[in-house]
Amino acid sequence: MEETISLRELSATLKKRFKLILLVAFATALASGIISYFVLSPVYQASTQLLVNQAKSEQQLYNPAEVQTNLQLINTYNVIIKSPAILEKVVQNLDLDMTAAEVNGKINVQNEKDSQVVNVAVQDEDPAIAADIANETARVFQSEIVKIMNVDNVSILAKAEATGKAAPVKPKPVLNIVIALVVGLMGGIALAFLLEYMDNTVKNEQDVEKLLDLPVLGSVTIIDEASKGKSHGYAGKKAVVRSETIGS
């Protein structure tokens, strides 16, 4: 027999396990808050900007073909900026206690569509180190690209600055707690249905019908002690009234 679950049964399961669902959601959100505030270290970001554009004299006019060439070179430049040829010099110049591969993981290079400006963003637990790596990467790239590509069309548009009031870019505790709360609710609901699915005890006549695929002809009612006491008292009162009636 194929089993079907009605919306009433689903709502009954959620109502039955409501406290469990809330407990799982609260525990997940609490764990996320503790990890975000007390375990994870804050990470800061510093950014510098490079302009890819050939230097021009006053006699030179705007050349659309040259601009298009610079735009096509930017994708190549984005790769070169994060290459060992650049980052190894950055590590050496700053005397960093990390490898070029580790520095690579801290750098994000991107540019807007059809823009000649390249943004070099560096994330680190120390905002000063993040700014130093960003500025040194831009400086080394500007110097080395002349040797690598035999072109001189890169200039530093803006330098990265480390300020004491800089806010960390991650972790974001509030966002993490909200995400954990949603995930906890989903996990609690899934756990509630799993427990209900694994519970194979027979609780009522409907369970007997589903289990045996047979109609229920009758059921035995459970009478508690309070009901028995009331029933005996009522019967005794009737007996007394009947006795008085006979005596009269």
TrEMBL record:
Record's keyword annotation contains Kinase: yes
Annotated TM spans: 20-40, 174-195
Pfam families: GNVR, Wzz
GO MF terms, alphabetically ordered: kinase activity
Domain Polysaccharide chain length determinant N-terminal, chain residue ranges per copy: 3-94
InterPro entries: Bact_polysacc_biosynth/exp, GNVR, LPS_length_determ_N
Membrane topology, record value: Multi-pass membrane protein
Subcellular location: Cell membrane
Ranges where the Tyrosine-protein kinase G-rich domain occurs: 142-194
Record keywords: Cell membrane, Kinase, Membrane, Transferase, Transmembrane, Transmembrane helix
Domain of life: Bacteria
Protein family according to the UniProt entry: Belongs to the CpsC/CapA family.
The protein, known as: Tyrosine-protein kinase transmembrane modulator EpsC
Organism whose genome encodes this protein: Bacillus badius
